[in-house]
Write a structure and sequence with these properties.
- The protein starts with a helix and ends with a strand.
- By secondary structure, it is α+β, with helices and mostly antiparallel strands.
- It is globular.
- It folds into 2 domains: 121 residues, Thermophilic metalloprotease (M29) (Thermophilic metalloprotease-like); 204 residues, no CATH class.
- The strands form 3 sheets. It has an 8-stranded antiparallel β-sheet, with no helix packed on it. A 5-stranded parallel β-sheet has the order 2-1-3-4-8, sandwiched between helices. Strands 7-9-13-14-15 form a 5-stranded antiparallel β-sheet, with helices on one face.
- It is 29% helix and 28% strand.
- The protein is built from 11 helices and 18 strands.
C-alpha cells in the first residue's frame, strides 16, 4: 500500500486539486487527529500554512454533535477547500449534513467520516487515474439502466428499477471545482432506486454501525418490498445489533426506504479483502442504503435524517440482463 503522508498528499493534491491561493478548512477530532494533522501538512505544503485552518471537534462541543459548532460554520465561507476527517458517532449526520450543504456553496469538499490511518494508507493510496476511468465506464453503463439485479451465494437476491430522470452520480475522486464533493477514499457510482425488492444479506453496515460492529460474524438479513423494509423479517443472531438497527430504521418516515444503489469503482480495493470500515469498503463492493437519497445529487424526491448503507460480498451483477460482475469482479 502506501503511507499516511502519501495518502494525505493524494487527498489534497490529486482528489481535491489544492493549488496555491486555496484556503483549506479541516475538521477533525481527537481519535483521528493524526489524519487531520497529515492533511494539514499536505495542504500547507501546497497553499501555505497561513491558508490552512483546522478545528478539533472536542475543542468546540460535546460529542456526539447535535449541530454544527458556530466556529466551524462561521469559517466555511472563508474556505475554497474543506475536509471532514473524523470518527463517526451516532446521530452526527445532523451535523455532517449541514456542513456539506454549506461547504459546497463556497468550496469543494472531501468528506471522510470514519477515516483512519489504515484507510489513508490503503484506499487513499490507490491510483486515482484508474479510479476515474473505471468510475466513468460503470457510470456510462448504469445511467441508461432500467433494471439491475444483484445476487450472491449467501442468499442475497435483489432487483432495482430506476427512473431515468434521477441522476447517477460518478464519484470519481476528482473534486476540483466549487460545489463538487465526495467521500474519500473514493470510487463508486450511485443513484436512488425508484423501486427495490428482494432478500438482503449483509455483514457490514454504514454510519456509526461501521465503527461499532465492523465486519460482524453473524449475518443480518431481511426482506424489502416496494422499497420498504419488512421489519417482521429482520433476522440476526446478534440481538443488540438487530435492535439498534431496527430503531435507527424507524427514526423517521423514510428511514426504512431504499435510497441508494451503488456499484464500486476503486480497482485496488475491489481486489482486496474488506477491512470492516464502510467508508473504504463501499468503494470495493456493491451496496444499498436506506434513508436519505441525497436529493441534491440524485434528484430523488424525498428526504430523511438518517442514511445507512449495507454492503454485499461476492456479488453477481446484471444490468438489463447483461452480466457485468461475477463473484465480485467485473467481467469486461
Amino acid at each position: 500500500m502506501g503511507t499516511l503522508e502519501q495518502g494525505a498528499v493524494s487527498a489534497a493534491k490529486t482528489c481535491m486539486g489544492i493549488r496555491s491561493g486555496d484556503k483549506i478548512l479541516i475538521v477533525t477530532d481527537v481519535a483521528q487527529g493524526e489524519v487531520g494533522a497529515a492533511l494539514r501538512r499536505a495542504a500547507a505544503e501546497i497553499a501555505g500554512d497561513s491558508n490552512v485552518r483546522m478545528f478539533t471537534l472536542e475543542d468546540l462541543a460535546s460529542r456526539p454533535l447535535t449541530g454544527l459548532p458556530r466556529q466551524i460554520e462561521e469559517t466555511i465561507p472563508w474556505a475554497t477547500v474543506t475536509f471532514w476527517a473524523t470518527s463517526s458517532l451516532p446521530g452526527e449526520l445532523s451535523a455532517r449534513g449541514p456542513f456539506i450543504r454549506k461547504a459546497i456553496r463556497y468550496a469543494r469538499h472531501g468528506h471522510m467520516p470514519g477515516i483512519t490511518a489504515e484507510l489513508m494508507e490503503q484506499g487513499m493510496c490507490a491510483d486515482y487515474d484508474q479510479v476515474y476511468g473505471l468510475t466513468h465506464k460503470i457510470h456510462d453503463i448504469t445511467r441508461k439502466a432500467s433494471k439491475i439485479e444483484i445476487n450472491n451465494d449467501l442468499g442475497l437476491s435483489i432487483v432495482g428499477a430506476f427512473d431515468k430522470r434521477w441522476r447517477w452520480v460518478a464519484s470519481d475522486g476528482r473534486y476540483h471545482e466549487k460545489g463538487r464533493w465526495g467521500n474519500l477514499p473514493e470510487g463508486e457510482t450511485f443513484t436512488a432506486p425508484k423501486l427495490l425488492n428482494g432478500h438482503f444479506v449483509t455483514n457490514l453496515l454504514g454510519d456509526w454501525f461501521s465503527e461499532k460492529y465492523g465486519n460482524f460474524k453473524d449475518p443480518l438479513s431481511f426482506d424489502v418490498r416496494d422499497s420498504r423494509i419488512d421489519f417482521d423479517t429482520i433476522d440476526c443472531r446478534n440481538t443488540l445489533l438487530r435492535d439498534e438497527l431496527s430503531r435507527y430504521l424507524k427514526s423517521d418516515e423514510n428511514s426504512d426506504r431504499a435510497s441508494e444503489f451503488a456499484l464500486p469503482t476503486n480497482p485496488l480495493l475491489i481486489s482486496l479483502p474488506t477491512v470492516g470500515n464502510l467508508l473504504q469498503d463501499e468503494k470495493a463492493r456493491p451496496h444499498v442504503a436506506f434513508g436519505d437519497p441525497y436529493q441534491h445529487e440524485t434528484g430523488a424526491p424525498w428526504a430523511s435524517k438518517t442514511h445507512v448503507d449495507l454492503l454485499f460480498e461476492r456479488c453477481d451483477v446484471s444490468v438489463d440482463g447483461t452480466e457485468i460482475m461475477r463473484r465480485g469482479r467485473y467481467v469486461f
